[in-house]
Amino acid sequence: MDIETFNCDLLEFLAASPTPFHAVQQMEIRLSQAGFVVLREADDWTLHAGGRYCVIRNSSSIVAFTLGEKSILDQGLRMVGAHTDSPCLKVKPQPELFKKGYFQLGVEVYGGALLNPWFDRDLSLAGRVSFRDTSGNIGSVLIDFKRAIATIPSLAIHLDREANSARSINAQTDIPPVVMQTNDKQTSFRELLLAQIRQEHPSCEACKVLDYELSFYDAQPAAIIGLHNEFIASARLDNLLSCYIGLQAILADSTEYRVLVCNDHEEIGSQSAAGAQGPMLRSVISRLLANEKEFTRTIDRSMMISVDNAHGVHPNFSDRHDANHGPLLNGGPVIKINANQRYATNSETSSLFRHWCESADEPVQAFVVRTDMGCGSTIGPITASEIGVQTLDIGVPTFAMHSIRELAGSSDAYSLYKVLEMFYRTEDVAVDRH
Hints:
Keywords: Aminopeptidase, Hydrolase, Metal-binding, Metalloprotease, Protease, Zinc. The structure is a single chain. By secondary structure, this protein is of the alpha/beta class. It has two domains: 3-86 and 235-425, Aminopeptidase; 88-161 and 168-218, Aminopeptidase i, Domain 2 (Roll). It contains eleven helices and 20 strands. The protein has a nine-stranded mixed sheet, with helices on both faces. Strands 8-7-10-5-6-9 form a six-stranded antiparallel sheet. A hairpin with a 6-residue loop joins strand 19 (397-399) and strand 20. The longest helix is centred in the middle third of the chain and has 15 residues, at 237-251. The model has no long low-confidence stretch (mean pLDDT 96).
């Protein structure tokens, strides 16, 4: 796959993945087309050497894996991890707000969202809806309005002269999106959702919406921008960009034992049944092995690469970076390091990655947060502590992380894809200790 094809398909993936549910659905489609068999956790599994499989939990987390021809105890697992969720605005259970003839929806802020950029955007709505059908059965479907149906208008500067110097945002009162004008205060959001289900899924015969998990998202599609097409601009680059890179890497042919895990709920701490701090990955790996002793032996020969976006040095705010560790967009993948293990990288895992980058003729950078600033974290330390696997934290450098529209270099994702493809083919991830 060349870089143009890679980036074109990436834009399509981002457009089709407004929520974690849709992202996992897109990954399942691509995996199935490549011969991966979808397994149910409730079933007994019959697995074969050379087989390709995937497991989905909560429709928002996925583990894909391939089985090698040799013994898993000798080869171990090559694992890549990412997360499917992004900061956003989620609709409340009883969201209807009627003010001055406008119909608005109450929202909760999911994760550490940068709120200012949400104003004056064309917003659409997508997610999962549960319903009862005409036969009394309970079902759920994914919906996506796919067009701009709402906005959060800014207050004019004439009415807030301090807007450019002192405005703060009250998440309860300032950000409910405006959906339409109506004088009918009996308007029910669930009735509007029922009409959308019937439009998107007429065969469901839904008669009542019971509940939902819905998120607003920016209706502006992802794009390649810059005078020389240097950048990718999109919502949810953190961290669907990593999901897509890992997906393309595991789709490549290989005879190794490979795993791709994309968890939900990273932005809110990963502590859920579908999150990295939950049992999903350990459960899947355990089913490939006979007992706990084999699990320990396999993990000792394995490695996890946690892929989550890194902070590129911003030209307007370069003082927010350590002067020696300012990753540049289009400067290659970034090794993320933190002495307090907010990232799980150690000197051996970073050395291995540097070696693979050199072997693939790809550049590599490093990120360390300023010593006087706090450091974010990833699924890397969580996965390392949950299953005991040696782990490396890396990512593609980006601007505006957690904004409604983020920016990455147009060559970095493809560069990292080539390195991860090499990692997946690596027979040995051990460092000789003398």
